[in-house]
Hints:
Blueprint: H1 15-23, E1 28-32, H2 36-44, E2 49-52, H3 56-59, H4 71-84, E3 89-93, H5 103-117, E4 121-123, H6 131-139, E5 144-149, H7 155-158, H8 168-184, E6 188-192, H9 196-205, E7 210-213, E8 221-224, H10 226-229, H11 247-263
Parallel strand pairs: 1-2, 1-8, 2-3, 3-4, 4-5, 5-6, 6-7, 7-8
Residues 32, 51, 53-55, 93, 190, 213, 223, 225 line the site of 3-methyl-2-oxobutanoic acid.
Amino acid sequence: MSVAKRNTDERKVTTHRLTEMKKRGEKIAMITAYDFSMAKIIDAAGMDVILVGDSASNVMAGNTTTLPITLDQMIYHGKSVMKGVKRALVVVDLPFGTYQGSPKEAVSSAIRVMKETHADCIKMEGGAEIRKAVERIIAAGIPVMGHLGLTPQSINRFGTYTVRAREDSEAGKLIEDAHLLENLGCFAIVLEKIPATLAARVASELTIPMIGIGAGAGVDGQVLVAHDMLGITEGFSPRFLRRYANLKDTITGAVQTYIEDVKRQDFPNEKEQY
Ligand code: KIV
């Protein structure tokens, strides 16, 4: 297996640099992080973009959907991540219920995220239906990443986490929404769980980067939830997920060994005490 060259460019990643990467055909690597320690490791490993995703609702708080997480909780995660990051571009998700109500509410949610976390930009789910909110936020000087296809904040409307935009009408709306978001000034778009041919078409039509999750190889970058690709989460194995580690087993083994060492009075030994 060939080992990819680690990113040695120490300059801070900006939204402008992502567009440059797309232009020269360099793929963008993006992953989620929710806390200081993990963000520090991921950033030092050379990640381009770190997403403080509202998937924190699932993997950090144990909820079954992303809906319950609050703006205060996202700000807490965003602040923690920012303390560990020097180089990666940091994107914070605006959580459900903080931007769909009105453009005014949307801009004040986005301003709170930027002021309190010091993150670089925000991400929002949806197309034409959130047009005014996106416009207001960009007009306030805040860079916006869009999110189309499977949008988990609308799970109760979809009723299922299955692949989106297989039908022509939904694919057509997705293409229109992607163009709309680019025209409004979004700097990139996440395309989640849509057919690879559709994602590749959108990526070739637009000048801003398309970051895929379950959207095939024809896009400009990939994003995964860290807890999924590191093998911490259980019972979630969609086709698009590649597991790069099995940390659940590693952690279980280490914790069990520690328990045994305590029980048989092997820990602490003489060198491990004062
Ligand atoms: O919240 C999240 O983790 C996301 C990714 C799935 C793109 O939005």
